């Protein structure tokens, strides 16, 4: 009985561990795996731990525990976004980064140019909230970050790590596109500059080879 309970708990942990983490900007609160399927990962109300975030030229970083995942980013300009409705306009999701697919697990650094998305109210000095939506096969998962947009800030602070460290399900040799992968989709959706491609690392290389 004890053994089976332990096995069950280990299974739960294993599954939960394979969700995703929002590494940057900092999420509303500490990661709670069981709450990640809920709105904002279980943190319903706006927080005071806002990140000053570039209006243009920002990025976000996640760690994906599931292969073959789809991710996108919603934005709300409401003062206390506490429902999915607050991330929609006229019933349509307000996307600041379109949904894109990625085959690999690992850590990803993905460009997030908020001003380029042309969201009304997402201007210099505005308090906004982004909600990262991730589907790795076990349902939609959510993490939110409360931000203050800054036009003066042209890139995230240098102490923020932005790198791609990925684990490809099937190893591929250098120079070939990963089989069955749309690795470039996340970056190329916004048109990669040479600099961005370098920052993107693996994702950028894949995009360049397309
Ligand atoms: Cu999961």
TrEMBL record:
UniProt keyword Membrane present: yes
Domain Copper acquisition factor BIM1-like: 17-166
One Gene Ontology term, aspect cellular component: plasma membrane
UniProt topology in membrane: Lipid-anchor; GPI-anchor
Keywords: Cell membrane, Glycoprotein, GPI-anchor, Lipoprotein, Membrane, Signal
Lipoprotein as UniProt keyword: yes
Biased composition, class Low complexity, residue ranges: 166-182
CDD domains, alphabetized: LPMO_auxiliary-like (cd21176)
Protein name in UniProt: Copper acquisition factor BIM1-like domain-containing protein
Region (Disordered): 158-182
Record's signal peptide: 1-18
Domain of life, per lineage: Eukaryota
Location of this chain's protein in the cell: Cell membrane
Major location (coarse): membrane
């Amino acid at each position: 009985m004890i053994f089976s309970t332990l096995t069950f708990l280990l299974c739960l942990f294993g599954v939960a561990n394979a969700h995703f983490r929002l590494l940057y900007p900092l999420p509303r609160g500490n990661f709670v795996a069981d709450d990640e399927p809920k709105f904002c990962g279980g943190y319903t109300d706006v927080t005071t731990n806002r990140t000053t975030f570039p209006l243009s030229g920002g990025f976000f970083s996640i760690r994906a525990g599931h292969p073959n995942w789809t991710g996108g980013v919603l934005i709300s300009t409401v003062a206390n976004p506490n429902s999915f409705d607050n991330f929609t306009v006229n019933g349509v999701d307000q996307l600041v980064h379109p949904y894109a697919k990625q085959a690999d697990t690992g850590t990803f650094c993905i460009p997030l140019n908020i001003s380029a998305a042309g969201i009304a109210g997402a201007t210099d000095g505005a308090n906004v909230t982004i909600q990262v939506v991730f589907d790795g096969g076990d349902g939609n998962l959510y993490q939110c970050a409360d931000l203050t947009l800054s036009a003066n800030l042209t890139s995230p602070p240098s102490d923020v790590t932005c790198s791609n460290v990925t684990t490809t399900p099937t190893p591929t040799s250098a120079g070939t596109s990963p089989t069955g992968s749309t690795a470039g989709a996340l970056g190329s959706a916004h048109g990669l500059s040479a600099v961005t491609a370098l920052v993107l690392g693996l994702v950028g290389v894949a995009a360049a080879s397309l």
